[in-house]
Amino acid sequence: MKHIWILPFFLIVFACSKKSSDDSIVLARVNDQVLTVNRLEVVLSPQQRSADQIRTYIHDWVNNAILFQEAKKMGLDKDETLINKKESYFIKLVVGAYLETEASPAITLSKENIRQYYRSNAASFIRSVDDAVLHHFITDNISDARTIQKKLKKKKSGKTMDELYSLYGVDTKTVMKGRLIKELDDVVFRGDGVGVVGPIMVNNNFHIIEIVKKNKKGTRVGLEGAYDEIYQRVLKQNRAAML
């Protein structure tokens, strides 16, 4: 039985797809694209390797790998404009990393700082598109897919569900409309209903999605959902002050 688990998009997926002598443990594979332990350790700093952060990264890597293959079919990996932008983008990443390294030690944000920023800038946390809170499972085995579907529909609480999420590297995430594969996006954002959808077959993989909640365009993002965005905004302000 093989399970497939679910950063800037083209650079990360392209780098992980190159053949190399890396013989470390394979964490995920989508056709000829492979994510290994060594590659993950290069991309994620030690401070970013909690169990939840690793699961989220692997989940996103698989989703992006699938989308990247669809883009290759359209010839976008050969697009000269994108190729020319790659070097410029890499330079920006390096500069950003340097500024973050310099700024981070000086940043101390308390919960009250976060709340105050949210209250002062509440109007900027309005959703520009619909989004959905969901659990997204991927497997290449139809039998496993049906088992996942049945367990989700029975929805046993506690240890049973935690083990299922852990086995497939799934956690709760919010996805904006238009960011999933089209076949999945159409199903997730059809109407206002929530619940379990799938299995849906895309590129020889089976997707089962548990839709927990849907949020409409124009509604306000709660403080918890805005926390990371607030941190990044303050970080950018600190960077700008250094220049």
From TrEMBL:
GO terms for molecular function: peptidyl-prolyl cis-trans isomerase activity. Its EC number is 5.2.1.8. Keywords: Isomerase, Rotamase, Signal. It catalyses: [protein]-peptidylproline (omega=180) = [protein]-peptidylproline (omega=0). The keyword Signal applies. The keyword Amino-acid biosynthesis does not apply. Residues 110-219 form the PpiC domain. This is peptidylprolyl isomerase.
